[in-house]
Amino acid sequence: MKKAFITEEGKTAVTAYYERILESLSVSYEQLLLPTQYGDTFALISGKAHGQTVILLHGSSMNSAMWIDDIQTLSHYYRVIALDIPGEPGKSDERQLSFESDDYAYWLSEVLSLLKIGKAFLVGNSLGGWIALKFSILYPECVEKAVLLAPAGIGSQNPEFAVRAMQLLPKGDTGVTELFTEINGGTAIPKDRLEYQKLITSVFNARQEIIPLFTDEDLKKLSMPCMILLGEKDIMIQSQETKERAVRFISHCTVRQYPEKGHSLVGMEQEILHFLQDT
Does the predicted TM-score (pTM) go above 0.90? Predict the structure, then answer.
């Protein structure tokens, strides 16, 4: 079982950068480590203590820092809990769980139980979207609504992305910048976010496995309202296939495509908020 970080020094550097990012939060928050059977899980908690709960699940090669802007917005209306997924470059246990098992769903179920949450809104990006789907299929009674940003598991992963990454990453800093710009739909990434992503790339044991697709029957089990946000310039996930399968097999599903966006869907907090509040 691989671990998230290549070295302890790399882990320390990523954690230190994370703490600097938290300084930009203008809302109060607490940080918890939850003991699960999969090791400690880090949770960043903010917002209304007794309000409805929104669980934020980040994408691979990232951590809960990606949700800073969303936390700023959503915490005025909800109890917001951003989790670091095990095996990813955050503060949770470093061991990477198998995509071929139900462990990620069991992990999230245990986290919700520890936090005494019976039902929640789920918001997941990429890998986090896949985990949100996995959990929603197995525990539909625990999900109020699901918001999925460029989720893995509905449309196929683009095999050309791996080729493109192998072409660009050996070029050093310039190649990494170009790769993440392409992931972002061809739009330049803010400098601080790009530098953090570069740091993570240099110290993280990136996962090479293909994330499994959900079957048609799996998707038909999703009974809760779902919203899927897709970038038409996504070079990692087949967004058109995602849309077509979602519309066909998920009974209560809204799909929104953005022609100018890629796989990196940030700045979507107002769209998320409107969907969560829509009755």
Answer: yes
